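ok new one. same drill as before - structure tokens go in, u give me an amino acid for every spot. 318 of them this time. try not to just spam alanines like last time pls lmao
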């Protein structure tokens, strides 16, 4: 566990685990004792026929009730601890789940009335409370960072909340924990816990617009992005005139992310090329392969050189 939420859940797990061990040993021991002590021996006749044993029945009703009462105390305490943020005015992040990727929305440091949108990489300041607002765009999903906090569902048209806090800087893996379709197992994300100064620097950078490419191949890729490839219809790149789509992840600073395709591939030139060439082979059923004309209309299929140009452009989005 690397945070107060995960620590409290781990402690509760230990309470339940050792209570279960106690019950298992007690019941299993009593069963073994009975089997051995009252086993049938040679020459035994029929045993005495009796009807119940009130004292024993009362005992095995009271004892489990006491065990449950003991477990109920830390359970209720943990539920309230996890449900109520210790700092309601702390950092606020909106989490929106899609099939099969994650969208994170921060308050824009340059304009508090605007939202700063990124995807699949959640940055948080280490040691600080982060309040999450959880929503889903399509089906049931579940937000889970095993080292930091347990699972909370994201339900369409139903707002859920949770709070998290990372005790140590580092990279933490997250995963959708509710079956949400064919690529459910590939719906991952990364949490980057970093010092407040580094987080503020990252946030200000994410609020900036993309840089104008100067390399001829990257310029060609930008023209393809807003032209034949029609990437602009599903993706946003701040600084480009046409790219205002929201169906796919925001790509304004995609080259600065450690992974692409929702945590599946390291963000390298070869990975980006493989993803653009055949996204369905990497993440089955993804909306880009399903709906983009470059994958469904033979007349619009991109050539190898056009894909190289798109890769060159995307790598400038740092």
């Amino acid at each position: 566990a690397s945070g107060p939420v995960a620590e409290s859940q781990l402690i509760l797990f230990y309470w339940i685990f050792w209570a279960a061990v106690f019950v298992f040993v007690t019941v299993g021991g009593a069963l073994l004792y009975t089997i051995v002590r009252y086993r049938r021996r040679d020459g035994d006749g029929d045993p005495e026929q009796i009807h119940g044993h009130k004292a024993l029945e009362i005992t095995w009703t009271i004892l489990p009730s006491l065990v449950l009462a003991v477990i109920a105390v830390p359970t209720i305490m943990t539920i309230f601890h996890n449900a109520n943020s210790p700092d309601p005015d702390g950092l606020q992040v909106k989490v929106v789940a899609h099939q099969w990727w994650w969208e994170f929305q921060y308050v824009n440091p340059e304009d508090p009335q605007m939202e700063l949108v990124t995807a699949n990489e959640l940055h948080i300041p280490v040691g600080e409370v982060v309040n999450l607002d959880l929503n889903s765009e399509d089906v049931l999903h579940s937000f889970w960072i095993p080292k930091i906090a347990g699972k909370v569902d994201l339900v369409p048209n139903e707002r859920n909340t949770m709070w998290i806090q990372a005790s140590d800087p580092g990279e933490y893996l997250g995963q959708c924990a509710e079956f949400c379709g064919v690529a459910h197992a590939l719906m991952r994300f990364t949490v980057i816990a970093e010092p407040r100064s580094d987080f503020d620097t990252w946030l200000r950078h994410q609020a900036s617009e993309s840089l104008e490419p100067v390399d001829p191949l990257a310029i060609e890729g930008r023209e393809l992005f807003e032209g034949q490839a029609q990437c602009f219809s599903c993706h946003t790149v701040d600084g480009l005139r046409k790219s205002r789509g929201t169906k796919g992840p925001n790509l304004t600073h995609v080259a600065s992310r450690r992974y692409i395709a929702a945590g599946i591939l390291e963000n390298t030139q070869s990975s980006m090329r493989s993803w653009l060439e055949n996204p369905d082979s990497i993440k089955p059923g993804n909306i880009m392969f399903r709906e983009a004309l470059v994958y469904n209309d033979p007349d619009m299929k991109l050539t190898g050189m056009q894909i190289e140009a798109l890769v060159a452009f995307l790598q400038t989005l740092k």
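The first strand starts at residue 91 and ends at 98. and btw The longest helix spans residues 4-37.
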